[in-house]
Amino acid sequence: MIQLSLDGKRLYVTNSLFSKWDKQFYPEVVEKGSHMLQIDVDTEKGGLAINPNFYVDFGAKPDGPCLAHEMRYPDGDCTSDIWI
After folding, report:
1. Would you state the pLDDT for residue 49?
2. In a domain, 78, yes or no
3. What is the structure's pLDDT at 84?
4. CB neighbours of 49 closer than 8 A, spacing ≥ 6?
């Protein structure tokens, strides 16, 4: 799933969709956990670049492996929901 930040400068991407779909079509993601990347968006000149300093391995979390799903910005509202 993907979600653009409210300022339009960061795009968050995961290799997980919904747990039921992941279980059926991507069982290795369920077994190993999903990942999240950040893509920097150049809103001035255009272009996209993967941020090499941002990588979340949900398989390596203490209670993992986990799937990256419903995540929200702190103090956000319905316009800042991230459905990952």
Report:
1. 98
2. no
3. 45
4. 39, 40, 42
